[in-house]
Specification:
Elements: E1 3-10, E2 20-26, E3 29-37, H1 43-53, E4 62-68, H2 69-73, H3 93-114, E5 119-121, H4 130-137
Parallel strand pairs: 4-5
Antiparallel strand pairs: 1-2, 2-3, 3-4
Length: 142
C-alpha cells in the first residue's frame, strides 16, 4: 500500500483565483491538498492571517488546506470526522507516515511548477472567512 497521486487542477477562478487542488489517495481514501494563493484573499483577510501567524505574507505565498476530497466537496461541512465515524478502520502509524509523506510530496510537486515564496496553513474551522469562499469554490471539482 502506498500513496497514489492523481491530477492537479484549478478549482474556481472567480471565488478563489488561482487556487488549485492536488489529488492523492491512500488505502482507498481520496485526499486533496488545496493551494490558495495569498492574492485570492482580500487585504483585510490577508492582514488578519498575517497577524494570527505572526509573519508578513508575501504576495506569492500560498495557503494550504488538506482534507479528504469528500470533506472538501461537502457543501454543508460537518467539521472533522474521524475514520471511525466514516465507517473506516483507523490508520496505523505506518499509514499516518505515508499520509504525511503524501502531503509533503503534494507540496513538492506544486512547488516544482509554481515556485512560490512560502506556504502557510490553518484549520478551516479556525479561519472563518475562508469557509464561505471554500464552500463556493470547491463544488466546481465535481
Amino acid at each position: 500500500m502506498g500513496i497514489i497521486f492523481g491530477n492537479r487542477e484549478l478549482i474556481d477562478n472567480t471565488a478563489l483565483p488561482g487556487a488549485q487542488v492536488q489529488h492523492f489517495s491512500l488505502a482507498g481514501t481520496h485526499y486533496g491538498a488545496l493551494f490558495i494563493p495569498r492574492s485570492a484573499w482580500d487585504e483585510n483577510t490577508a492582514l488578519k492571517v498575517s497577524r494570527e501567524i505572526g509573519v508578513d505574507l508575501p504576495a506569492d505565498a500560498y495557503e494550504i488546506k488538506f482534507d479528504t476530497i469528500e470533506n472538501l466537496l461537502d457543501e454543508e461541512p460537518t467539521g472533522y470526522r474521524t475514520r471511525h465515524q466514516r465507517g473506516l478502520a483507523p490508520y496505523s502509524l505506518k499509514d499516518l507516515n505515508l499520509l504525511g509523506s503524501g502531503l509533503l510530496e503534494s507540496i513538492n510537486l506544486f512547488d516544482q511548477d509554481m515556485r512560490c515564496s512560502g506556504y502557510y496553513g490553518c484549520a478551516v474551522d479556525d479561519n472563518p472567512p475562508a469557509v464561505p469562499l471554500l464552500q463556493k469554490a470547491i463544488p466546481t471539482l465535481r
